[in-house]
TrEMBL record:
Organism encoding this protein: Kribbella steppae
Name used for this protein in its record: Glyoxalase-like domain-containing protein
UniProt feature coiled coil, ranges: none
Residue stretches making up the Glyoxalase-like domain: 2-105
Length: 106
């Protein structure tokens, strides 16, 4: 599920795929995605008492509304909490289908 989601929103190819692991090629760089049985979705906004693994993943776009629509169409969603000190035309916090938060920046 995450493999297809990131393939679709990044518009890249899956270079390798096994049952619990896949690699996406972005130019000459690789993003690996691996399933974990113990996974618990991160909490957003962050809470030190509840947070599990999280990376700070940001994607740039020239068209915020089109990027948000692409994420939603691929199975993600806008995070219920958006930073009140950020212009939503410039930054949106999104959640992938597994609950990982990431940012879209314009």
């Amino acid at each position: 599920m995450l493999v297809a989601f990131y393939r679709d929103i990044l518009q890249v190819e899956v270079s390798e795929h096994e049952t619990r692991w896949a690699a996406l090629m972005v130019d000459d760089r690789c993003i690996n995605i691996q399933a974990q049985d113990w996974y618990v979705p991160p909490v957003w906004p962050e809470d030190a008492s509840a947070q599990t693994k999280m990376i700070h993943f940001e994607m740039d776009t020239r068209d915020m509304e089109a990027a948000v629509a692409l994420v939603v169409q691929a199975g993600g969603m806008a995070a219920p909490h958006q930073p009140p000190d950020r212009d939503p035309k410039q930054l949106r916090v999104m959640l992938d289908p597994a609950g990982h938060p990431f940012c879209i920046c314009a």
